[in-house]
Design goal:
The complex is a heterodimer.
Chain A (H helix, E strand, L loop, with lengths): L1 H34 L12 E4 L14 H10 L3 H11 L26 E4 L12 E10 L2 E8 L3 E10 L2 E10 L6
Parallel strand pairs in A: 1-2, 1-3
Antiparallel strand pairs in A: 3-4, 4-5, 5-6
Chain B lengths: L34 H13 L17 H4 L4 H11 L4 E6 L13 E5 L5 E6 L1 H6 L2 H23 L4 H14 L7 H21 L6 H8 L8 H4 L3 H14 L18
Helix pairs in contact in B: 1-5, 3-5, 5-7, 6-7, 7-8, 8-10
The chains are: A alpha/beta, B mainly alpha.
């Protein structure tokens, strides 16, 4: 009986560990794809500077934010979303891959994008970077993913991605405060 | 060309609005002390758009290198309208339509029912709070809309007109994101808008800042925009928020442009 109990505990433990690993693995693939410069686009912009510290274990709180609804609403014309709208609007589906990450700092070694730089504002001077962001949330739902950025606790930007041909591709962005159209 | 702004609009035409004043003569802005300054502001910005010095308007109907290198896009568009008696552009200040978030758009370009005139309307609150750089950016953006409306009306079989027709077709079948004119602007006009904005501003700032400002409004819903790396898209949104004078903005970054009041 004890052996059976130990076996169950071991199985559950391994399952949790595996899920955590899957989430982390997806996070780094998503970040690498999101910040990679597309060689076919002439406008690439400047390098990005991002806070090493994150709060990804709190990612589920984004599902209660109005930005989540706006993000899906703005992106709903997309072919991908038309195909999977029920899947996407069900918030529970965004937690099937539980946002659990072992360290509250990003691992630089898992980033292979030259134009993405992680900086720790607690120990490094970041004042020379005009736009410095912090990643508040990353969520996955099958082939879809969301990244939520925060600039100086003042501007919040949510990006929706879809995994296509092995790469995450952006399909929609919304912000708070929202930007006006013209 | 017909620019019905402060200098020309008191013609009795019911469509002619004095900036900051609606058709009934009521002020549109809460910032009453600033109204006259805003009048001068938009007038100066539009008048600051000069055509190319060779005296010949560039032909943007062909999507070639001349469009990518254009330094005077807005001035050349105004010059084109000036030289074509069949078409005019009217610029006014007034209420604008609401976007999907329920906020008034910064500016809009419509076409008069006669089909021979584009009407650009600037939102008065936007003019009061945005910097000159943001307003110039918006003015160039709207002039491109006016130009595309002109192309649809008068030069439909040009390369530009055919490309636009193709985008409209794809959009109608949900094959591409974004409104077709904005998609075309994102694909073909970014360089020219950024260069023309830099030129009208005397190249005072880094080229990247003018490029960021170029990505405005509906252009940010195009597939081209979605290919820009995430960090740069954040910078584009942040710069737009700062220069637009959004009252909710608390970003610790100074605007590049100056405000009318």
């Amino acid at each position: 009986m004890r052996i059976l109990l130990l076996l169950c505990i071991l199985l559950i433990s391994n399952s949790c560990k595996s899920q955590q690993t899957d989430y982390e693995k997806n996070v780094y693939q998503l970040l690498n794809d999101a910040y990679t410069r597309n060689p076919n686009v002439s406008y690439i912009g400047e390098d990005a500077y991002v806070n090493t510290n994150h709060s990804l274990n709190e990612s589920s709180s984004f599902l209660k934010d109005s930005l989540f609804d706006r993000l899906l609403e703005q992106s709903k014309w997309q072919f991908y979303i038309k195909q999977d709208s029920t899947l996407l609007y069900n918030k529970e589906n965004w937690l099937l891959l539980e946002p659990l990450i072992s360290d509250n700092k990003f691992d630089h070694n898992k980033i292979n994008v030259k134009n993405l730089h992680f900086k720790n504002p607690d120990v490094e001077d970041v004042s020379m970077h005009t736009f410095f962001s912090k990643i508040d949330a990353v969520l996955f739902n099958n082939e879809f993913a969301i990244i939520v950025d925060n600039l100086y606790d003042s501007l919040f930007v949510a990006h929706l991605y879809v995994l296509k041909d092995g790469k995450y591709k952006d399909i929609g962005t919304v912000s708070y405060p929202p930007r006006a159209n013209e | 060309m017909l620019i019905l702004n402060e200098s020309k609009q008191m013609s009795g035409n019911s469509l002619s609005l004095r900036p900051g004043i609606n058709a009934n003569g009521a002020r549109l802005s809460d910032c009453q002390d600033c109204t006259q300054m805003t009048d001068d502001w938009i007038d100066d910005i539009i008048k600051g758009f000069k055509p190319s010095e060779n005296g010949v308007s560039l032909d943007f109907t062909s999507l070639d290198q001349s469009l990518l290198d254009a330094l005077n896009l807005s001035g050349d568009i105004l010059s084109l309208f000036d030289n074509d008696e069949r078409y005019a552009v009217k610029i006014k200040v007034g209420q604008t339509q609401l976007d999907r978030n329920g906020n008034p758009v910064n500016a809009q370009t419509g076409r008069a029912s006669s089909g021979t005139m584009s009407v650009i309307t600037f939102n008065p609150d936007y003019l009061n709070r945005a910097t000159d750089l943001a307003i110039a950016r918006t003015a160039i953006h709207e002039l491109v809309h006016a130009y595309l409306q002109y192309i649809i009306q008068h030069v439909p079989n040009s390369e530009l007109g055919t490309t636009l027709d193709s985008l409209i077709f794809q959009h109608n079948f949900w094959l591409i994101p974004g409104e077709p004119q904005h998609v075309l602007m994102a694909e073909q006009f970014v360089s020219a808008i950024a260069l023309s904005l830099s030129n009208s501003d005397g190249f005072q700032h880094a080229a990247i800042e003018y490029q960021r400002l170029t990505w405005s409004g509906g252009m940010r819903e195009s597939a081209t925009y979605e290919q820009i790396p995430q960090g740069e898209r954040n910078a584009i949104i942040a710069r737009d928020q700062i220069e637009s004078g959004d009252p909710r903005n608390t970003l610790p970054v100074s605007p590049l442009g100056t405000k009318s009041c």
